[in-house]
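Dear Dr. H.,

I hope your travels went smoothly. While you were away I took the liberty of generating a structure for the chain from your last submission, since the lab meeting agenda had it listed for discussion. I wanted you to have the full record in hand beforehand rather than looking at slides cold. The sequence, exactly as received, is reproduced here:
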Amino acid sequence: MSLEREQERKLEAIKATLAQQGKWHSLILMVITLLAVAILGVLLLEILDMRQMEPG
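The corresponding predicted structure, in token form, is as follows:
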């Protein structure tokens, strides 16, 4: 029981921290997402270019 209560307390502390840092957190997530999309797009273009270069 006490372990469960302690986990709940930790979860509440994390939620409070995220609420305080909500703007920064969402901004960082957005930047990471945009970087991931850009990297995947570049990789996809590279793969497509390699396919076109292969003798058909």
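Two observations you may find useful: Helices lie at 2-20, 22-53. The mean pLDDT is 87.

With kind regards,
E. W.
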